[in-house]
Amino acid sequence: MFQTLAELEQKWQNEVDDLCAGTREKHEIFFIDYHLVENKVKELTFLCFLKDVGMDTANLEEVVNALRSVYILLKLRQLSVDHLDGIMGTMSHSYFKFVVSDKILAETMSHNSSG
Fold it and tell me: pTM score > 0.85 for this model?
């Protein structure tokens, strides 16, 4: 089980990195059809656990949509961090970058959940 979790986390991170680099489109997410494939429900459950997304077996399509939203938000967070890196140059303000990027992510998530 732990190996599967680690593999899913690595696959997720690789795809977020590819998305940020422009080598992958957001409609190419590896889990995008997991709600249609019966033997992928276990992996979908693991992804929900890893990304703190509620798992509703009665509405797997909505679960995939929620994971997709997290995936896109992580892309935005990474792009924000990269942008801050560019602005700050070689200055060492990693704590500031982390706080600002988390604030952006939290505001985006709260805005999405209220709308």
Answer: no
Q: Radius of gyration of the chain from Cα atoms?
A: 16
Please give the residue range of the domain that contains residue 19.
2-114
The structural domain count of the chain equals: 1
For residue 97, give the H/E element and its range: helix 94-114
pLDDT by position in tens, the chain (length 115): 789 999 999 998 898 888 878 888 777 888 888 888 889 999 999 999 999 899 999 999 999 999 988 888 877 777 666 655 555 554 554 555 555 556 666 666 665 555 5
What is the distance between the alpha carbons of residues 88 and 68, in angstroms, rounded to a whole number?
30
